């Protein structure tokens, strides 16, 4: 009875059983699309975190310029560059999704 309540209140964590190199298994072989999805998600997640951190840093630099035009210009340019970077990351995500989707639909020269 107590174990049932415990299992219901605190579900088991599955992070310990996840194999990063083999995220999905079907028929004994790893799907290349699942590996590509995992790598793309990881790389774009890191890029997004860095872009947002740079946006915050540049915003703080711009706010704390205290009338110094050089520092204000540097902060403003950093904010613009970070926003452009975030837009590029979002576009890269969707382009990668389309490429992986097209790649997984091709089998023996035919598109399914």
Q: Which sequence of SSEs, written as H and E, runs from N to C?
A: HEEHHEE
| Low-confidence region ranges | 108-112
For the termini, the CA-CA separation is: 50 Å
Structure summary, number of beta strands: 4
**Computed CA radius of gyration, to the nearest angstrom:** 22 Å
The share of residues in helices is: 55-70%
Shape: elongated
How many structural domains?
A: 1
Number of helices: 3
Structure report:
The chain has 112 residues and is mostly helical. It has one domain. It is built from three helices and four strands. A hairpin with a 2-residue loop joins strand 1 and strand 2 (29-30). Helix 2 (32-63) packs antiparallel against helix 3. The protein starts with a helix and ends with a strand. Mean pLDDT is 77; it is low at 108-112.
Per-chain topology:
Layout: H1 2-9, E1 25-26, E2 29-30, H2 32-63, H3 69-104, E3 106-107, E4 110-111
Antiparallel strand pairs: 1-2, 3-4
Helix pairs in contact: 2-3
